[in-house]
Amino acid sequence: MFYREAGDFKTSYRADSQTFPIRLDRMGYFAALAVAYGVVPFVIDDYWANAVFVPFLIYAIAAIGLNILVGYAGQVSLGTGGFMAVGAYAVYKLMTAFPEVPIFLHVILAGGITACVGVLFGLPSLRIKGFYLAVATLAAQFFLVWLFNKVPWFYNYSASGQITAPDRTMFGIFITGAQTSAAAKYLFCLVILTLVALMARNLTRGTVGRKWMAIRDMDIAAEIIGVNPLSAKVTAFAVSSFFIGIAGALLFSVYLGAAEVGEAFGINKSFLVLFMVIIGGLGSIFGSFAGAAFLVLLPVFLKNVLVGGLGWPTDVAAHLELMIVGALIVVFLIVEPHGLAQIWRIAKEKLRLWPFPH
Amino acid sequence: MKKSFAALAAAAMLATTGPALADLTVPNLSYRTGSYAANGIPYADGFADYFTLLNERDGGIGGEKVAVPECETAYNTEKGVECYESTKGQAALAYNPLSTGITYQLIPKVTADKHVLYTPGYGRTSAANGAVFEWVFNYPANYWDGASVAVKYMMAEQGGDLTGKKITLLYHNSAYGKEPIRTLAELAKKHGFTLTLLPVDPPGQEQKSQWLQIRREKPDYVIMYGWGVMNQVAIQEAVNIKFPMDHMMGIWWSGSENDVGPAGAGANGYKSISFHGVGAEYPIYADLKKHVFDAGKAAGAGDQLGTVLYSRGMYAAMIISEAIRTAQEKTGKAAVTPEEVRDGFESLNLTEARLTDLGLPGFAQPIAASCADHGGPGTAMILQWDASAKKWSAVSEWIAADAEVLDPLIAEDSAAFAKESGIAERCK
C-alpha cells in the first residue's frame, strides 16, 4: 500500500538506474542520513560514542570491505584482523612521521598501504580456492601479527610494543587523542563510512562488481565470457583490503587510542568481522551494516539490561551474553541462511503486497 | 502559590543533589570470564570485599559509604573502553583495571577527564614519574623493580656474582610481558649475565617449543612474566623437563595458588616475587569473617580468602581507601571529588603503624608518595611455594630495586611520553 513501485515513473536512464529506485527506500535513505548527520552529533555523549556508535561505524566499514571479498568476489578470507593491523600500524607510522598532515589523509593512505599488502596476499587466490585460500589468508593473519610484534620499527621502539595514537587535528578540531569530543569522533567515522558505502555500492553495481560476481558464481564460465580472473581477483583483494585498512586505522587511532597487535587484531577479530558478514548477508551492503549493528550493539544492549537493569552479577551476565549471542547466531542461520539482508528483502516483498496478499 | 513554588524548588534541589549525596564511587573493572578469569576472580573478590568491610564495619570512609560498581572487561581492551565510559560519569574516584593493555588505553583518557588511575604492580612502568604522569600512580612497585629484585636475589644466591650465568626471560608476548626486557638487558650488561628472551603468544596454552629451547640451553634461572593460563602451563612444562623449580621465579602475577596448583607436588620450591604478604593470618581476616563472610556479603563464591591474588586485590582497595581518607583529612569534607582524591594519592603517607591499625601489620612496605614520586619504594620479597602444605612462605627480606639502573630508564621513557604528548613537567 505504502511501499510499491507502482506510480513511481522514471523518465530518464539516470533516474531508472539510481541506487534506490523505489521512492520510499529513497526517502528512508535520506531520512537516515539526515538523522545521522543532523541529529545524532548534537545529542551524542561519550558513552554513546565510544560504546555504541564509533565501534558500529568502524565495524561497518570493515564488514563492507570483507563483504566485497567474500560476498561479492567469493574469495574466503580469514586475514581481516591482520589487514586491520596493517591499517593501524600504517596510520601510526604516518601520524608520528608527518604530524602536520591532516589525519584524514593518513587514514586514506593507510588504506592504500593495506590495499598493497592485501594484493600481495591475494595473489595465491589465482591458484587456490575455497578452504585452501582460507588457510592461506589465515597464514597472512598470523604472519602480520607476528611481524608487528617482532620488528620494533613498527612500534617506534616503545618499551612495551604498544602503539599510542598522538593528538591529531583537522581544521583545528581534535580527531584523535583523549581530548577528542564525542561528536568529532562520530562525525569523522561517519563521513568515512558514507564515502566507503557509496563507493562500495557503486563499484558493486558497475562493471567491476559484475566481474566479481561472475567469478564468484563460476570462475571458468566467467573466464569464457571474457572476465580476466587475475584483474577481477586482484581488484577484489585491493578494494576489500583498502576498506579493511581504513577500518583498522580508525579502530586504532579514533576508537581505542592505544593498541597492541595480538590483542586488538588477533584471529578473533577476523572471525568477528566474518560473522558480521555472514549474519548480515553475503553480497549485500545493507547486510554489512546490519551484521555490524547486530554484533556490536547486542552485547552492549544485553549487558545494560542484565547488569544495569536487572542488577545481576557481572560474570553471570557475561556468560549469558555469550550464550544468547551464540544461540541467536545459530537461530538466524537456521531460519535464514542468507542473513539479515534476506529477512529485510522478504519483509519488503511482503510490504509490497500488503494488505492484499494473494 | 509562593509556597508551592518553594516546595517545587526544594523538590528539584533534592532531586539534583540526590546523586551527589550518594556514595564515593570506586569502579571495579574486573574480569570473571575469558582466558584470564582464574586470576581475575580472586583479585576482584579481594577488592570488593575490602570495601564491603569498610561499609559494614565503619560505615564507609569518613562516614561516606563506598559504592563499588563492577564492570566485566574480560581482559579485552574494547570492553575496557566501554566500562570506563559507562562509569566515568559517576564521579569515579579511582580506576584499577588490572590489565596493562587497558591501562595504556586509559592513561590519556584519565588525564583528559581527570580521574585517578591506580595500577599497583602493573601498567606503564614510567608512570612512576609523577612529574609527567599527573593522574597515574603505580606504587609500591613496578615491573622493572620486579626484574631488578629478581636479579638481585639470584645474585645473592650465586654468592654476589652473575658473570657468565644464563638467565632466560619467558614472557607473555604483550605489552605486559615486554616491559622488563629493557631493564633486564641493562642489568645483563651491568652484571655480565647472558639474557635469552622467549616470548609466549597469549593466551599461552602451547609452550612446547619454548621449553624445548630451555631444555637445550639449560639456563641457570628462568624468570617468568606470565598471566592466566600461561603460568600453569609453564610450571607444568618446567616440571615435565625436570627444571629445578627453585631456579624458576615468577613476577608477582605469576605466583598464585592457581598457577602452581595444577602441577601438584612437582611445583614444590617454585618462587615468586611479591610486594605484600599473603595468607589469612592477619588480624583483618577476623573482621572480614565477622562482617563480610558470615554476613553472606562476600563477593563471588567467597572461597578465595587469603590467597595471593585476593590479598593483592585487598591491597589495591586498601591503598585507594587510604588515599580517599587522606583526601578527606586534607579537605576536611567527606564527599571528595576525583581531583581531591588525586591530591590524596600524592600526599599518601602509609606507615607501619597505620598498617597495624588497619589489621595488616607487616603486610606491605610503608609508602610516602610525593609530587614526583608516584612509584613508591620499589621493594619486594621472594615467596616460595610449599606444595605439601599448599602454602606460600617468604624466603627473603624486603629487597630494594636497583635505582641506579632503573631511574635513568624511567626518566628516559617518561621523557619520551612527555615529548610525544606535549606535556610540561610538573613538580619543579
Task: Outline the structure in words.
- The complex is a heterodimer of chains A (358) and B (428).
- With 358 residues, chain A is mostly helical.
- Chain A has a two-stranded antiparallel ribbon with strand order 1-4.
- Chain A is built from 15 helices and four strands.
- The longest helix of chain A has 28 residues, at 229-256.
- In chain A, 46% of the residues are buried.
- In chain A, helix 3 packs antiparallel against helix 10 (229-256) and helix 4 (80-97) runs parallel beside helix 6 (130-150).
- Chain A has a domain at 21-266.
- With 428 residues, chain B is an alpha/beta fold.
- Chain B folds into two domains: 23-142 and 279-378 and 408-421, Rossmann fold (3-Layer(aba) Sandwich), CATH 3.40.50; 143-278 and 380-404, 3-Layer(aba) Sandwich (Rossmann fold), CATH 3.40.50.2300.
- Chain B is built from 14 helices and 17 strands.
- Chain B is globular.
Describe this protein with a few key phrases:
heterodimer; A: 358 residues; mainly alpha; two-stranded antiparallel ribbon; two-stranded antiparallel sheet; B: 428 residues; alpha/beta; Rossmann fold; 2 domains; eight-stranded mixed sheet; three-stranded parallel sheet; 17 strands; 45% helix; disordered N terminus
Shape of chain B: globular
Number of helices of chain A: 15
Class of secondary structure makeup of chain B: alpha/beta
Tell me the radius of gyration of chain A: 21 Å
The helix tally of chain B amounts to 14
CATH architecture of the largest domain in chain B: 3-Layer(aba) Sandwich
What percentage of amino acids of chain B are in beta strands? 5-15%
Q: What is the terminal-to-terminal distance of chain B?
A: 59 Å
If you compute it from the alpha carbons, what radius of gyration of chain B comes out, rounded to the nearest whole angstrom?
A: 22 Å
Instruction: Give the helix/strand class of chain A.
Output: mainly alpha
Q: Quote the distance from N terminus to C terminus of chain A.
A: 14 Å
> Into which percent range does the helicity of residues of chain B fall?
40-55%
Q: Which chain pair has the greatest contact?
A: A-B, 36 and 48 residues
Please state the average pLDDT score of chain A: 90
Spatial order of strands in the largest sheet of chain A: 1-4
